[in-house]
Automatic annotation (TrEMBL), chain A:
Keyword Protein transport: no
Superkingdom, natural source: Eukaryota
InterPro entries, sorted: Mad1
Span list, region Disordered: 1-43
Subcellular location: Nucleus
Coiled-coil ranges (or none): 67-101, 156-247, 272-319, 381-527, 552-618
Family to which this protein belongs: Belongs to the MAD1 family.
Organism whose genome encodes this protein: Brassica napus
Protein's name according to its UniProt entry: Mitotic spindle checkpoint protein MAD1
Keywords assigned by UniProt, alphabetized: Cell cycle, Cell division, Coiled coil, Mitosis, Nucleus
Keyword Coiled coil belongs to the record: yes
Bilayer-spanning residue ranges: none
UniProtKB/TrEMBL annotation, chain B:
Principal place of residence: nucleus
One family name in Pfam for this protein: HORMA
Function: Required for the execution of the mitotic checkpoint which monitors the process of kinetochore-spindle attachment and delays the onset of anaphase when this process is not complete. It inhibits the activity of the anaphase promoting complex by sequestering CDC20 until all chromosomes are aligned at the metaphase plate.
Protein name stated in the entry: Mitotic spindle checkpoint protein MAD2
Database matches in PANTHER family: MITOTIC SPINDLE ASSEMBLY CHECKPOINT PROTEIN MAD2 (PTHR11842), MITOTIC SPINDLE ASSEMBLY CHECKPOINT PROTEIN MAD2A (PTHR11842:SF11)
Length: 722, 209
């Protein structure tokens, strides 16, 4: 508060030192409050300074003048005080205004700081978030890229290696397959040819033997008929002979009667003897002639036999000469079969020739799968590229966000600068105010306002300003650090981008290589398919004409051979018929040579019987050889019997027993009738496995050879131990 | 053959195209048999075909065989069931396959199904066939010599749903192990496209080298 009344002496004496009187001035002792110091001075100077009334009046006037002056001064001072007070109030008001302004500016500052803080926090949050996102994205991208690249490279290398191995395997297997197929074909062809040849030979031999048998049977029948005829002729001749004898005896009797009557009986005897001798001679000649004829016939027959046996010898020799070759070929076939089996064993998953085709098709499928995988890898590459493009877009977005954040930072910086400028202005105003306040304090001690509060306020303002400045500096430091971090991240991004570009180039080059390889593979496959003759059994069938030129030639040759044999047989038949006719004429003409004829016939019959026996033995030998060969070749002992059905129809029954049979009950029985073969049910065939095989091979596929072959293999496997 | 002549291109039907291809095969087979000396030279007679002097066999058996073959091939071509025809040359003694002359056929399925026709110049087709015949004749320059007596056979690759005639049987493809392959020209009637390729067994001289 401003004191209107002056303070007491002490305060005044303390406050001002100018009112203390000096030795030169008059000290007026009065009762007014003023003279407190005068009183004190008067006590000191009472003795010395005793004036007269005039002096006192003069002094009073002086004092009054001084008083008036003082009063005037006081009034002036009062007016000045008032003006000062007014000024002070104005200054107070101004100060209050300034204080209000300052407070307002402080509030604004605080609000701005708060906003700044919030913005900074938001920015920091955003920066942190964006940085985190960026780092995460980068890390994820980097990791993804690395992992995917590694995986794709691994996949590619694996696929390439698998393709290479598959191709190598396919090539090796193709080579092996081709070799196997060629060897198998050759073997098959050879076996088929051999079997056909053997079958034909067997058929021919069987047919020949049958024909020979028939011939022999016909001959035997004809010989029997001839013998019957001859027997009948013999009987007739015997009867005639008896009659002749009877007549002869009668003639002898007559002759004897005649000789008794006649004179010369000796001449008749001589004649009779001569006649008898002539008859004997004739008979002997006839016998000799017949012997010669028979010998001729025998010689011719022997010649024919010789020719036949020569031809048989030649055939046997040719077959014998062929035997070592056949054995060699059989050995080769066995070796090839063993090698083929060993090759099949080496090929995994192949146990029979049919599996080779399946394996080849499986390998083709694997190659197709590998190409599919390559295609998938390429699609993955494309997907990776798309992902990379997406990450690049994300990077670009993050960069734009970072640019936006930077712009925000710059805007905030500009705001901060503006605020700082405002603060500077405010501080200047404060300093001005301080200066004004200090001047006022100096000029007006009473009406002075407590500047301490102003000082403390200014100090607080200053301290807050200093704090704010420090905070701003810290923010600037953080900003610079963030800028450095951003720059580093930018560098890393650029580095990663360079890497991405190089990887993308690598990928493109790899894609080009893969496309080129695919085109080469497709070209090779097309070449292989076109040139190698490969085909898929599901879509394609390979056919050839049956009536090929080779078969025709073979048929022609066989036809020609058969025709030659027919001509030979016809010639032989003609010769035999001529001989028969000649022998018949000779027997009819010569009646007296009956006994020789009978002997001849007997001899012929004996020879024929011998021949029959010989033919039978030969046939039996050949049949046994054939049966043994069939048994050894096909693994079954075949027994042929003739049966009659209840309806009287004759039926041929074949009983087959495998050489690998474990018991005598394991027999198969077939009925053969007019070209149809049917299997009979028995204890062995009614067993489960055998019945199944019969159902499959005979009923379903109508193939008895397949059934017997399968049965042979099964029994062989049972017998042999691995 | 071509049914009608238009301005520059001729209309070709399925029947005509089948006849062209089967006739081509007959002449190509004769040319191969002559050039590879499967049959003696004196058993061939010269005729004019495709603008070239072509040699046809006079052996009745071979003639009848090839005629039956071409009839069946034509039938299959009209049905669109024929995929490939292969002429195989084999050793008479061993039965080993020495050469395979592949004629791969691609058929326009639309023509077979709908019976439409196509347009192509007859001259163009003849020119293409002539080029193939020239290549067949010049093949003796690089094919190995066939020193031993040989026989030939013809294989037909058909669809699986084809009814097999009684004079035909299923056969193995008679492949050559590690063959050398030479691709020849192709000809196209716009209905049937025929690619030609010869694969042959590596000569011993080449193997030694």
């Amino acid at each position: 508060m401003m004191l209107r009344t002056p303070p007491p002496k002490k305060a005044r004496s303390e406050a001002g030192g100018s009112s203390t009187p000096t030795g030169d001035q008059l000290v007026i002792y009065e009762d007014s409050p003023l003279p407190a110091p005068l009183q004190t001075a008067s006590h000191d100077h009472s003795d010395q300074h005793l004036c007269t009334y005039q002096c006192r009046q003069m002094v009073k006037s002086d004092v009054l003048d001084a008083l008036s002056k003082a009063e005037k001064q006081a009034q002036g001072y009062q007016t000045m005080l008032q003006t000062l007070n007014q000024n002070f109030t104005q200054a107070d008001e101004e100060r209050k205004q300034f204080r209000d302004k300052f407070l307002y500016s402080e509030q604004e500052l605080a609000a701005a700081k708060g906003r700044e803080k919030v913005l900074q926090e938001q920015l920091l949050m955003e920066m942190n978030n964006s940085q985190e996102r960026y780092t995460k994205a980068l890390q994820s991208c980097h990791d993804l890229e690395v992992v995917k690249l590694q995986s794709e490279m691994n996949l590619r290398t694996k696929a390439e290696s698998s393709v290479a191995t598959a191709e190598e395997k396919a090539k090796l297997l193709e080579e092996k397959l081709s070799q196997l197929s060629g060897s198998v074909e050759r073997e098959r062809n050879r076996l088929n040819n051999d079997i056909a040849h053997l079958g034909k030979e067997a058929k021919l031999s069987v047919s020949r033997i049958g024909a020979d048998l028939e011939r022999m049977q016909c001959r035997a029948q004809s010989a029997e008929t001839e013998s019957d005829l001859l027997r009948s002729q013999l009987e007739d001749l015997k009867q005639k002979f008896d009659e002749c004898l009877h007549e002869k005896t009668e003639v002898y009797k007559k002759l004897s009667s005649f000789t008794s009557e006649a004179a010369s009986p000796s001449d008749n005897n001589v004649l009779f003897k001569t006649l008898q001798e002539e008859l004997k001679r004739c008979e002997a000649e006839v016998r000799e002639a017949r012997k010669l004829k028979s010998q001729q016939l025998d010689a011719e027959l022997l010649k024919v036999k010789l020719l036949e046996e020569k031809s048989r010898r030649e055939r046997a020799e040719s077959e014998l000469s062929k035997l070592p070759e056949l054995q060699i070929s059989f050995d080769k076939l066995e070796n090839e079969l063993c090698s083929w089996k060993s090759l099949l064993n080496n090929i995994p998953g192949v146990y029979c020739p049919d599996d080779v085709v399946m394996k080849f098709s499986a390998l083709q499928k694997e190659v197709l799968d590998s190409t599919m995988k390559i295609g998938e890898a390429s699609t993955r590459f494309n997907q990776l590229e798309a992902a990379l493009d997406a990450t690049q877009l994300g990077k670009q977005n993050a960069e734009t966000e970072a640019a936006l954040a930077k712009e925000k930072f710059e805007a905030l910086k500009s705001d901060v600068k503006r605020i700082e400028a405002m603060l500077a202005l405010v501080t200047e105003e404060k300093e001005q105010l301080k200066a004004v306040v200090s001047e006022r304090r100096k000029s007006n001690s009473d009406g002075s306002v407590s500047a301490t509060t102003d000082g403390t306020l200014a100090q607080s303002f200053e301290s807050s300003l200093a704090k704010k400045e420090n905070y701003l500096k810290e923010l600037e430091k953080e900003l610079s650090q963030l800028k450095d971090v951003n720059n580093r991240q930018r560098d890393e991004i650029e580095h990663l981008n360079d890497k991405l570009v190089s990887e993308a180039r690598r990928m493109k080059s790899l894609e080009r290589d893969s496309d080129r390889l695919r085109s080469e593979i497709s070209l090779l496959e097309s070449k292989c398919k076109l040139g190698h003759g490969d085909f898929s059994a599901a879509n394609t069938r390979v056919l050839r004409m049956v009536n090929t030129l080779g078969v025709e030639n073979e048929a022609k040759q066989t036809i020609e051979a058969l025709q030659a044999e027919l001509q030979k047989t016809k010639e032989r038949l003609q010769a035999v018929e001529e001989l028969k006719s000649q022998s018949g004429d000779a027997g009819k003409l010569v009646d007296s040579h009956i006994t020789g004829k009978i002997a001849q016939l007997k001899e012929q019959i004996a020879t024929l019987e011998k021949r029959e026996e010989r033919y039978k033995t030969v046939f039996a030998d050949r049949i046994s050889v054939f049966r043994r060969a069939c048994c050894e070749l096909f693994g079954y002992k075949i027994v042929m019997d003739e049966h009659q059905r209840p309806n009287g129809i004759p039926v041929t029954r074949f009983t087959l027993q495998s050489i690998y049979a474990q018991s005598d009950d394991e027999k198969l029985e077939f009925d053969y009738e007019s070209g149809n073969t049917s299997i009979l049910d028995n204890q062995y065939t009614s067993q489960g496995e055998i019945a199944k095989q019969i159902e499959i091979f005979i009923r379903k596929f109508n193939s008895i050879p397949a059934f017997t072959a399968n049965l042979t293999m099964e029994s062989f496997n049972r017998r042999t131990l691995y | 053959m071509a049914s009608k002549t238009a301005a520059a291109k001729d209309i070709i039907t399925l029947h005509g195209s089948a006849a062209i291809v089967s006739e081509f095969f007959c002449y190509a087979a004769n040319s191969i048999l002559y050039n590879r000396a499967v049959y003696p030279e004196e058993s061939f007679a010269k005729v004019k075909k495709y603008g070239l002097p072509m040699l046809l066999t006079q052996d009745e058996s071979v003639k009848s065989f090839l005629s039956n073959l071409t009839c069946q091939i034509s039938e299959w071509l009209e049905a669109g069931k024929l995929q490939r025809v292969v002429l195989v040359i084999m050793s008479k003694a061993t039965g080993e396959v020495l050469e395979r002359w592949n004629f791969r056929i691609e058929t326009d399925a639309e023509v077979v199904e709908k019976g439409v026709s196509r347009e192509k110049s007859d001259k163009e087709i003849m020119r293409e066939i002539q080029a193939i015949m020239r290549q067949v004749a010049s093949s003796i320059t690089y094919l190995p010599c066939l020193d031993e007596p040989c026989v030939f056979d013809v294989l037909a690759y058909t669809d699986t749903d084809v009814a097999v005639p009684f004079t035909w049987v299923e056969s193995d493809p008679k492949l050559i192990a590690n063959p050398q392959m030479v691709k020849l020209h192709a000809f196209d009637t716009k209905i049937h496209k025929v690619d030609t390729l010869v694969s042959y067994k590596n000569d011993e001289w080449d193997e030694e080298e």
